[in-house]
Amino acid sequence: MWAALLPVGRDAWTGGYHRFAWTPPELDCRAWFTDEARRRGLRIEHDPNGNLFAWWDAGSGPAVLTGSHLDSVPGGGAFDGPLGVVSALAAIDRLRAAGFTPRRPIGVAVFAEEEGARFGVACLGSRLLTGAIDPSRARGLRDGDGRTFGEVIAEHGLDPAAIGPDEGLLGRIGCFVELHVEQGRALREPVGVASAIIPHGRWRLDFTGEGNHAGTTLLADRRDPMLPFAHTVLAARRSAAGNDSVATVGKVTVVPGGVNAIPSSVTAWLDARGPTDDAVRRTVEEIAEAARRAAAEHGVTVDLAEESYTEIVGFDHALRDRLALVVGGQARSAEPAPVLPTGAGHDAGVLSARVPTAMLFVRNPTGVSHAPAEHAETGDCLAGVTALAAVLKDLTGG
Ligand code: HGY
Ligand code: MN
Ligand code: MN
Ligand code: MN
């Protein structure tokens, strides 16, 4: 099943994946999912926010939802997102092959724009579903070509006026369990359980200077936004280190971008994460202060805007501990599965504000993610399916 997805959106040269929301590769992945779900007799549902669900309408009562996302970061790995979607379908196959019929419905979700690689806000689909982002703000989010989220989803049969929290759908979900490739290298077992997602956010920095000729403009007359931008990149590393946090500056747009023209503006995105909200807030404030100081020094203005922020997510403890026992039992270790925090954001982190949520991680021997070296061994992926099937069975009355 997995093999069909592997070539979709993959750059043959770098091996990285480019599957941005509502672009042909991601649409092909959605079509693949819809086809696989229909072949299993699952009922397809598109919510108004661009999320896609496949339901095994067995039993009654609130569903156990699993699944993940199919979009990627630019040049991403093969597993981040798709592993959770493919494992969900494979787990359903396992349950059916064992003759199991759930007493509660089981759903598989494909959440939209989880990476935020196209419109800038991570977990856009799950944030809209749960009311974690203002629909009018979401409608106006623009991609790199200046296209708005509202315009793009309208081209794909959705009504931009209908986006927003869906209490009816949320009311049908009893809990959400997302399986995901580990993003780091802590696991010594094939499968682990998430304890928390550390606080993390994204900020947009706009440096505005004065475009001019690279050869004829004296240094003293320059208002070059690249300089405060460069200071800010170094300040981000310094501040993060000083606050036991991490910070990354990326997705940089230099306008106009020629080598023989001093740019008029530089836009950069800051991704900051840390062990506590205070640590992240302090880190960002120090970076903002350094950016303001450097901008003033070079006659440049700078605006910093918070695009998204997720406070620490402590997953549902009862669900977490139950999964650790179930998964441990599957591993025949008789020990509960390892429980660990993650520095990566997930739809599960967003859903956890509204429904009991937990995550399973499949061991990643390289520890790398958001890059082509992201990996999970076949044996560990199969252990992930075994674990997810056991969890779905346990949670739906098996
Ligand atoms: O960015 C993240 O942490 C996640 O992988 N989307
Ligand atoms: Mn990711
Ligand atoms: Mn992911
Ligand atoms: Mn995620």
From TrEMBL:
The keyword Hydrolase applies. SUPFAM superfamilies: Bacterial exopeptidase dimerisation domain, Zn-dependent exopeptidases. It holds the Pfam family Peptidase_M20. Zn(2+) 1 binds at H69, D80, H180. Its cofactor is Zn(2+). Binds 2 Zn(2+) ions per subunit. InterPro entries: Amidase_Cbmase (IPR010158), Bact_exopeptidase_dim_dom (IPR036264), Peptidase_M20 (IPR002933). Keywords: Hydrolase, Metal-binding, Zinc. Allantoate binds at R202, N260, R273. GO terms for molecular function: hydrolase activity, acting on carbon-nitrogen (but not peptide) bonds, in linear amidines; metal ion binding. Coiled coil: none annotated. Zn(2+) 2 binds at D80, E115, H370. NCBIfam families: hydantase, PRK09290.1-4. Belongs to the peptidase M20 family. This is N-carbamoyl-L-amino-acid hydrolase.
